[in-house]
Design brief:
This protein is of the alpha/beta class. It has two domains: 336 residues, 3-Layer(aba) Sandwich (Alkaline Phosphatase, subunit A), CATH 3.40.720.10; 63 residues, Arylsulfatase, C-terminal domain, CATH 3.30.1120.10. It is built from twelve helices and 16 strands. The chain has a ten-stranded mixed sheet with strand order 7-6-5-4-8-1-9-10-2-11, sandwiched between helices. The chain has a four-stranded antiparallel sheet with strand order 13-14-15-16, with helices on one face. The chain has a two-stranded parallel sheet with strand order 3-12. Helix 2 crosses helix 7 and helix 5 runs parallel beside helix 7. The termini are far apart. The relative contact order is 0.18. The N terminus and C terminus are likely disordered.
Length: 456
Amino acid sequence: MNRLGILLSLVLTTAFPALSADRPNMLLIVADDLGYHDLGFQGARDIPTPSLDRLAASGIRCTHGYVSHSFCSPTRAGLLTGRYQHRFGHENNPAWLPESTHDGLPLDQVTLPELLKKAGYRTGAVGKWHLGAHPQFHPMKRGFDEYFGALGGGHEYFPGKKGSSEYTIPLNRNGVDEPQTGYLTGQFGDEAAAFVKRHAGRGTPWMLYLAFNAPHTPLQAPERWLQKLAHIPDINRRTYAAMVCAMDEAVGHVLDQLQATSQRDNTIVLFVSDNGGPNLSFRGIGNFTDNSPLRGAKGDLYEGGMRVPFLVSWPARLKPGTYEQPVIALDFLPTLVSLAGGSPPQDRVIDGVDLMPFLTGEKQGAPHERLFWRTQGPQGNHAVRQGQWKLVRKAGSAPELYDLASDVGESSDLASEQPARVQELQAAIAEWEKGTIPPIFQSPRTNKKAVKQKKN
């Protein structure tokens, strides 16, 4: 090889890490509004979920797994940046405002797919986006090479309805509108499986972000699943359960494709819900999800709001089992970027931790000293977990203290018995707050009202 060839080889080797079996493919699956107890491996008896049960049996079930928020978009912003979304003001769901360059994941935030692309990965996203409606926020502007899905916060499950709301807009493939052709959850599963097949054997590792909008409302399910679940008497619970089953079937389709293309062993699969199951009794729909044994639901800072089913499966490296220390979806970014041979940004705080040394047993102890949550801004609601202790402070109310080791349902407030611990955790919240900012955009209802007033 001449000098020019040697120099070029050195440059390419430095710029693009060599491919190896140690750099796994990555499949990150996110469910939407899934109840904590509503999967077989979580204890459900009325909802069969064989595919997710199989995934759980093949990997590590993190029994103290959390997301960084108790509702949709902020959780996704945290997951894709590895940072508490409160650090950059993404604390609310963005309204569906295609004209707004403000309502979405801030452009100065570095995302997981951007970092993986730098490490030589092919990146794809399928499903719900919900991180901004303006074209500048499109997934392919935020690090994904390929995208197919629904850009808003939700969508009709069956094709046919047309309109300009985020639930009726066309689907989007790589920036181009495309009509919906089938039951949406199944369509997302088919697209994800096609991505897996398409990238098999190419010699380039890949990362796929599969973000279902199921089983989020509207309650719409295939008739064949409704018939199979006729034993569930409540129609809303039955429809929701059918939606969970359809999602499980779609996950199974993707896992089967991994197996068929001999990629399963060296693919790390992660699964979470974006928050706990909702209680929609206030809307007259009823409480059709099951977060037991946890207290609370979507939107709450009790455990039912953000403690979720949390799986990590990588047959080539991880032995099946359970992991009992608190972990959070913020950990996905540093974990996956490290496996890719890259490194997180050095110019900002990354709140996630590389979980691999803990999951393999190389490191002992807890990955995090404390975990924090906040809704409705600095003057709103707060929670912090430190070891077995959880403090919840709702706006305008006295702080509550719970011992999660003996009271996972947060039924016995110990604040009056342990004032020193309450003071310690309150001080921890105050210190954490110094690294946050207020929300940079309002919730959809507030925002739409402001836009309407501006137009008038």
